[in-house]
Design goal:
It contains twelve helices and eleven strands. Helix 5 (about 165-170) packs across helix 6 (about 200-210) and helix 10 (about 265-275) runs antiparallel to helix 11 (about 280-295). A seven-stranded mixed β-sheet has the order 1-2-3-4-6-8-11, with helices on both faces. The chain has a four-stranded mixed β-sheet with strand order 5-7-9-10. The longest helix is centred in the middle third of the chain and has 20 residues, at about 130-150. The chain folds into two domains: about 20-255, Alpha-Beta Complex (2-enoyl-CoA Hydratase, Chain A, domain 1), CATH 3.90.226.10; about 265-310. With about 325 residues, the chain is an alpha/beta fold.
Amino acid sequence: MHGFKPHAKDGHRPSTWVSDLFITPLRLGKNMSDLYGLKLEPMPNRLVNYGVTENGIAVIELTSDSAGAPLEGPNDRSPNTYTHGMMRDIDEAVVRARFDDDVTCIVLTGNGASFFSAGASIQMLNSVTPGFKYNFCLHANETLSRLEQTPKLVVCAINGHAVGGGLEIAMAADIRIARKNSGKVGLPEINLGVLAGTGGTARLTRLIGKAKALEMMVTGELMSFEDAHACNLINHIWEGDADDFRRDILDWCSQFTLPNKAVKAVGNIKRSCQTGPEIPFEYHLALERELQAALFNSDDAKEGIAAYVEKRVANFTGQ
């Protein structure tokens, strides 16, 4: 569980203790179905699976073959390459999670145990016009920005290699957690004579600094999860097999669901951290004050302060 334990209220075991939320105690196959009551369903293009757990975690799972086409049957080594069709599925899933009041946290992951995503389908890029490629990048920018600006915490569960566009997708998440020894990360587009054009140069520079990001992209070298963690590209590395990893991700994300966290505060913290660094410092402080003022008027702030004074565990409602 990596440090997180659901809290007991007034010294008693809560009614929604983690183990109670599992549908079955048996080890599952290499998919996320049936964890916390999760039922994944394909999006329209069958390139993304989407579902919501009983405790409000939306899961967006990338799933495709090397050509970026839907999988035909189970495939534990699917590269989950993306096309415009997958980006449309991701876009619709993000919007669905954003508008769902029962969703408080979003998990982004890949099918199987080998790849989060190998990036854009080279077969697709080799078969379309320059104009299509431009609009493909534009729509991907818009989709990942929508994910980044959604006022719900986004956790990327990196279950395998995240390279090229796969890393670009992961960098749009708020927190990145990788499974130990399952892959590497990198932006090797230089080897194709291009750059990481769906947010790669912009986000990597902001995350790890200009010098390191530039070196990583012009050499095209892949980075181990340990090195990525050392430069703050990855937040955590967890041991365990693919099944354990998926279960642990949902366990860990449960701390961000109701009644454990004041989700409006989470959203406002995210807004300040996302928008603030892009504006002058004094404007960031002004934004922070306005976000705090809105929270002081919330029911959850009143509950949190009262619980602290009364020495009890807060029971947040999202109001």
